[in-house]
Here is the input.
Amino acid sequence: MVENVQELIEMQTNKESSGPRSFAGSFYEQYHPLEEIYSWINKISHEHPDMLEIILIGSSFEKRPLYVLKLTGRRNSPRRAMWIDCGIHSREWISPAFCIWFVQNAIDSYNKNPEITQMLDNMEIYVLPVMNADGYVYTWTTRRMWRKNRSRYEGNNCVGTDLNRNFDAGWCTKGASHDPCDNTYCGPYPESEPEVSAVAKFLREKKDSMKLYFTIHSYGQMLLFPYSYSYNQAPNHDELQNLANEATQKIRRYYRTRYSSGPGAPTIYLAPGGSDDWAYDLGIKYSFTIELRDTGRYGFLLPPQLIQPTCLEVLTAIKTITHHVIKNTE
Here is the structure.
């Protein structure tokens, strides 16, 4: 059980300096409400028009825009693409913080760090910093531990669908709930939620070039891959397991942080309707869920001073996996 909950919440929301003006380090080591993230998206894309493009892929149930940042190097357009989404579960604040940090780090490191340069020159990288925009706003204004989106359906007394149970991958089988009041409510039908539908539509349109999919969650320190909707092994299970092992070993070697790895269902639990399984079944053969820090001491209330160390170790995993995918795909 996490102690001093109120104190930790205050630590997460207390910002010494706000707004993108104070970028030097501090902006990326704080949590930000949605309007600040959207201001940052505008600011950083105006500052780096040669590397960033804003794409509006849809809107949330409450009509907030869903922005994807397309990130590329300054060379010819790559044939391959990868996707990273953050904030599918609204209480997992470290997840959007990672997406923001990742974009800034990639821009700063381009043409300086060879691994990042290789990544950007060989991949179009699509980053969705906050998939569950409505739920995220609600965690800032009303209920810090809210998980689902904020959709409402006639005849339901309860609000919200678990977006990571709403994809069309073993939808609403064991591990999801038909009860709208449950945290794992799968929604009235697959892709019923506008946030899920927007992501699925975008990825379907890009499926020929999309080689790698990451969805960023917390907490648990795990690197997971399909399947989560069944105990069956994915056809390229051994390759995914070896790759996940290599990535987690590097994290441990460089940062002394232990991440476990394996297919979702046996490693944690059955979770049907998840985005990683859906992406895999769409044809994206490298599909991963990364559960960020920690293992329960702070849980969802990870203090801001742990944002940077968390991001650095996860970047190690992403670089390792991306390098493998570039080497092994056309």
